[in-house]
Amino acid sequence: MTLAMNADELMEFMAAEFPQVAEQFRIENLTPESLTVRMPVSDRHLRPGGTVSGPSMFALADVAIYLLVLSRIGPKALAVTTNCSIDFMRKPAAGVDLLAEARLLKLGRSLAVGEVHIHSEGVAKYVARASLTYAIPPER
């Protein structure tokens, strides 16, 4: 399968459509089957106790699937999350970035289903696993 958008085009799209969060994420790797996104962890992502907050990990998972879907369907800003389930499995390592590895399980005309595994850079064990469904806007 070919890609509708490459990594540079996806990041340009994010900067144009979501400037409030675009700088918080970087695409590390993109193939037709998967996408890896880095979230450089900073103080804004931490909760008391010095660990990465759940909402920050949710945002990383959500952005990873969103970008992977767009890489396949093209720049459709109105593709939206319709469901997300996330399991927080262990505390992320302190002071290191998080990486999200996203894969699509199904890409249909109106829905995309994917999964994301998140781990701390340099640590093999996952800190979270998410399953997400996206609604794809109809063609006009």
From TrEMBL:
Residues 49-122 form the Thioesterase domain. One of its GO terms (molecular function) is 1,4-dihydroxy-2-naphthoyl-CoA thioesterase activity. It comes from the Bacteria. The keyword Transmembrane helix does not apply. Keywords: Hydrolase. Pfam families: 4HBT (PF03061). One of its GO terms (cellular component) is cytosol. PANTHER family: 1,4-DIHYDROXY-2-NAPHTHOYL-COA THIOESTERASE 1 (PTHR43240), BLL4964 PROTEIN (PTHR43240:SF10). This is Uncharacterized domain 1-containing protein. It comes from Meinhardsimonia xiamenensis.
